[in-house]
Write a structure and sequence with these properties.
Elements (H helix, E strand, L loop, with lengths): L36 H11 L3 H17 L3 E3 L8 E3 L2 E8 L1 H25 L4 H4 L5 H5 L21 E8 L5 E7 L6 H14 L1 H4 L10 H11 L10 E4 L8 H11 L3 E2 L4 E4 L2 E6 L2 E4 L2 E4 L22 H6 L4 E3 L10 H4 L2 H9 L6 E2 L3 E2 L3 H9 L4 E5 L9 E2 L5 H13 L4 E5 L5 E6 L2 E10 L1 E4 L3 E3 L4 E4 L15 E7 L3
Parallel strand pairs: 3-23, 5-13, 6-7, 6-11, 11-12
Antiparallel strand pairs: 1-2, 4-5, 4-20, 8-9, 9-10, 14-17, 15-16, 15-17, 18-19, 19-22, 20-21, 22-23
Helix pairs in contact: 3-12, 8-9
Protein name: Circularly permuted ATP-grasp type 2 domain-containing protein
Pfam families: CP_ATPgrasp_2
Organism: Acetobacter orleanensis
């Protein structure tokens, strides 16, 4: 990886006077193509700010976020459990043409994932045809036997999908992973926009920005579209594990945005294989549940008998077609990091199309060739456990010590099926306000797709930024922050 900076004085002024444009694709400064006038306009406006002004507005933003309760929980930190996700006031900008490409690619991906899930829980044609190893699916810990033979409304298994994208040194967007179970972070997309419009109105004024305000409405409508047949006015609820969940703020936020009740397992009851919500006026039917807890906690009669978070009898009500659960049970197979390696083949198999968005080259350590390649190139690869998220448990080879490499070698040899490896991608960077001034920091993007009768993609997504210099890990649990994502309408 080449970290040598490339200074371009003609692109810098004011707050950017000391900004060294690195030898990466920079979202604002060196996009490797002619920048649209709006992008240049944003550069010029930003250059007129002082560092002191940007810091003042950043402090105001984080104070407001904390007062609004927009926090996440870090259970491993004994000193500070509730944290504000660090917010950067320099937005990440996506052009209209770039967004069209992303949108089409995400829609294609979601369509293929839903077809794949229907197939593996029904005919299993893709397994018989040898496109993907049967054991990788049928022995996957996320494979759910309760879903076998179950026809879900509209064929929609993944109603809400978060697709993690990165951008390489050439500016090409690549899919890093799928989040097809209970993807989080959309609340920050919307609140970041609210924050920017309140604190940086002079930067956003008059710019042709796509709105993010429709997410709650679109999500509610899509869940109504795939509610059980014959229900004229479906009741949707959001099921949360409760106030101690790390994303509880988001649960409250989304219930409010959707205009639906926020419930916990104790608020729901199943009678005669139908789901009801307890209210002061008595039991009220529930037809669609946007659940924000994992499969194993949903129903103590079907999964973990010790779960106090779920609803006894919910899975049987679901199997009988009396309630829709979003996302469906067993969707974790589709976002497994090993299955990810087969997604280009899955897209070709079901859609007879080439992937619009490419995937990162992936080596499956459960396979002899993949393991041998990984062991021989550990110092050049990112090695990830297939079941972890949040940036935990991975090894970034070029940044690892010899002791860390040796320790990870033993892990690979002891349990190769638990790991995949990928080349280190030189992620794109974006100007970011740092203690020493405005500096380049690596970013990724998580667009959110909502599927009912069709798939709608929220214009933008969660841009996460690795605040530590040189770090490629953008996850909030690992010290990352976020930016507002501006999609240009023209």
């Amino acid at each position: 990886m080449n970290d040598a900076p490339r200074h371009t004085p003609d692109q810098t002024a004011g707050v950017f006077a000391a900004y060294d444009v690195p030898d990466f694709f920079c979202e604002l400064m060196n996009r490797k193509e002619i920048a649209p006038p709006t992008l240049q306009n944003v550069r010029d406006r930003l250059a007129r700010f002082s560092l002191a002004d940007l810091r003042h507005r950043t402090n105001a933003a984080e104070t407001q976020l904390y007062r609004l309760g927009i926090t996440f929980t870090v259970y491993s930190d004994k000193e500070a459990i509730d944290r504000v996700l660090p917010f950067d006031v320099i937005p990440r900008i996506i052009t209209a043409a770039e967004w069209t490409h992303i949108e089409r690619g995400v829609q294609q991906r979601v369509q293929a994932i839903n077809l794949f899930l229907h197939d593996i829980y029904h005919d299993r044609a893709i397994l018989r045809d040898g496109i993907i190893p049967a054991d990788l699916v049928l022995k996957n810990p996320n494979y759910c036997e309760a879903m076998v033979g179950l026809d879900v409304p509209g064929g929609v298994y993944v109603h809400i999908n978060g697709t993690d994208l990165i951008r390489d040194q050439s500016g090409r967007f690549l899919i890093l992973e799928d989040n097809a179970r209970t993807p989080s972070g959309v609340s920050y997309v919307i609140e970041n926009r609210h924050m920017m419009l309140r604190l940086m109105p002079d930067l956003a004024a008059g710019l042709p920005l796509r709105s993010v305000e429709d997410y709650g409405l679109k999500l509610h409508q899509s869940l109504r579209e795939v509610s059980p047949k014959g229900v004229l006015d479906p009741q949707v609820v959001l099921l949360s594990p409760g106030i101690y969940n790390s994303a509880y703020f988001e649960h409250v936020f989304l219930a409010r945005e959707m205009g639906v009740p926020l419930v916990e397992g104790k608020d729901l009851v199943v009678e005669n294989h139908r789901v009801f919500m307890r209210t002061v006026a008595g039991l009220r039917p529930v037809h669609a549940i946007y659940r924000r807890l994992n499969d194993e906690f949903l129903d103590p009669l079907a999964f973990n008998p010790d779960s106090m978070l779920g609803v006894p009898g919910l899975v049987e009500a679901y199997r009988r077609g009396n309630v829709t659960i979003a996302n469906a049970l067993g969707t974790g197979v589709a976002d497994d990091k090993a299955v990810y390696a087969y997604m280009p083949r899955i897209i070709r198999y079901y859609l007879d199309e080439e992937p619009i968005l490419a995937s990162v080259e992936t080596h499956i350590c459960a396979e002899p060739n993949g393991l041998a390649y990984t062991l021989a190139n550990m110092d050049k690869l990112v090695i990830k456990p297939v079941g972890e998220s949040g940036g935990y448990g991975l090894l970034i080879g070029p940044h690892a010590t010899q002791a860390e490499l040796a320790e990870f070698r033993h892990k690979l040899q002891d349990n190769p099926g638990n790991y995949i490896s990928q080349p280190v991608i030189n992620l794109s960077v974006s100007p970011t306000l740092c203690p020493q001034g405005v500096e380049a920091r690596h970013v990724d993007l998580r667009p959110f797709a909502v599927t009912g009768r069709s798939t709608w993609v929220l214009p933008g997504g969660l841009s996460r930024v690795a605040l530590r210099k040189g770090s490629l890990v953008v996850n909030s649990s690992q010290g990352g922050g976020s930016k507002d994502t501006w999609v240009l309408a023209s």
